[in-house]
Amino acid sequence: MKPIYFLIVCIFFSACKVNHLTGKKTFNAFSNKQLFPMALKQYNSFLKENEPIKGTEEQQQILRIGKNIAEAAQKYFAFKGQPNYLQEYAWEYNLVKNPQRNAWCMPGGKIVFYTGILPIADNPDGIAAIMGHEVAHALADHGGQRMSISLAQQGLNLVALKATEKQPEAKRKAILTAYGIGSSVGAVLPFSRKHESEADKIGLELMAIAGYKVEEAPKLWERMKAASKGKSQPEILSTHPSNQRRIDNLKNWASGAKALAKEINTYKN
Asked: How far apart are CA 11 and CA 101, in angstroms?
């Protein structure tokens, strides 16, 4: 077997793991010991270039809600029989001045909210919906999975280049272009949309466990949809589900999230 093909096989077989939160097999070639230091380095670099807001009510609200969602995550894992799973997480919550409607959480629990998303959040429950979603990405190891699929795609790109090297240039270019579009639309983008839906559902459960109103989550996305003003692209070409799909999903999941929260909050080790 040629080295490049052997490498691809090794990546695929070594990267199949069971996610402790979802119980599902996932494609992840990176451990927390690898990811967390990289994330911390990137986070600190970001904060050096984007000074966090301190001492405002908005900043304090982000901090309070972040801690509540982190406590909910601990309850979630304890309920699932993994009470020590989050020991390596070092939660940190920062608000930075930026007009973008965005927030994110890096592997290991490093969170940033942009001031531009606060009008969309509108209230503490809206902030909790966003916080729960971003924390869910970290808990479900989505960062490592995205890096793994990117690594695999790079390897497959090399295979495609090698396999077509004897083809006429025009035909080779057409094949590689078709492969690039196919691998993106048929694999990478659905993979990303799946992560977003998974984070929506887990985030809804986390905010319910923390005592926030899950009914506010679909309202958040209704405000996001209104703010987008028709600028969204077709779902098949997007990394995210459509706003309407998210709204519908969150409404459908609300009763289940509240039932799970009640069970977890009355659960005793």
From this structure: 35
DSSP letters spanning 114-167? EGGGHHHH-SHHHHHHHHHHHHHHHHTTHHHHHHHHHHHHHHHHHHHHHHTTTS
Q: Are 134 and 117 in contact (CB under 8 A)?
A: no
**Alpha carbon distances (Å) from 112 to 28, 66, 130, 179:** 24, 10, 11, 36
> Which residues are annotated as catalytic?
134
Whole-angstrom distance, CA of residue 20 vs CA of residue 269:
18
∠160-161-167 over CA atoms, to 5°? 100
pLDDT digit string (tens) for the chain, length 269 residues: 444 444 444 444 445 566 666 666 655 555 678 778 888 899 999 999 999 999 999 999 999 999 999 999 999 999 989 999 899 999 999 999 999 999 988 888 999 999 999 999 999 999 999 999 999 988 887 555 565 555 545 544 544 445 545 556 665 455 434 434 333 333 344 446 688 888 999 999 999 999 999 999 999 999 988 987 755 544 333 445 688 889 999 999 999 999 999 999 998 75
Separation between Cα atoms, residue 237 and residue 186, nearest integer Å: 10
Other CB atoms within a 10 A radius of the CB of residue 224 amount to: 19
- What pTM did the predictor assign? 0.74
CA distance 105 to 124: 18
Do the Cβ atoms of 15 and 27 come closer than 8 Å?
yes
Both tokens of 43, joined, read 């986070």
